[in-house]
Specification:
This protein is of the alpha/beta class. It has eight helices and ten strands. Bound molecules: calcium ion. Calcium ion binds next to loops.
Amino acid sequence: MRSLLLIEDESAIADTVIYALESEGFQVIWVTLGLEGVDILQADPDIALVILDVGLPDSNGFEICKAIRKFSDVPLIFLTARNDEIDRIVGLEIGADDYINKPFSPRELAVRVKVILKRMSPGSKSLDTTKSSFEINTQLAEISYFKKPLNLTRYEYLILQLLLKQPKRVFSRPQIMEQVWEMTGTSLERVVDTHIKSLRTKLREINTEDSPIKTHRGLGYSISS
Ligand code: CA
């Protein structure tokens, strides 16, 4: 059984989340304090996913997320109550995989959890490594470029992995969003541009000669592997 960690101080919300996820066969560890959650995660690397409230009694979700990202790449979903919180999650690229607005349907949360866990599971198609300057290791969720592992955020990894699945194919921003974020409309298209920009910077650090990610004006992005 896969364990999920829920960090949420409101017991009514926690109850519905736990109920929804346990009905889907997950085991839920629930804590009300952010730092308590960090401790548990450090002690138990098998936790498959974290659901994190933004407003917590001892800290806030952003700080807790940063603390978690220092040692763990575990998938993370934010529970948010306000729009300005969403802007921070998206804008700061603090390493969240998704967010869900309060009030939310527990069912929807369960669906998102399953989608993220499925997306992170190994077994995606690999590309022809004999010709490519990229190498994907889906087990480690790592991509190398000219044999050098890239230090990617989760979204950068997912975008690059998507582009590399079909080199030369042009993906529009909505297509990238749909594939990477799964649910269209939950995020902003310009966020794709931001991630692409930082991906390019990271690729350029390894190879200044080439810029494999192409922009197709009005259409989207493609990669030459
Ligand atoms: Ca709260």
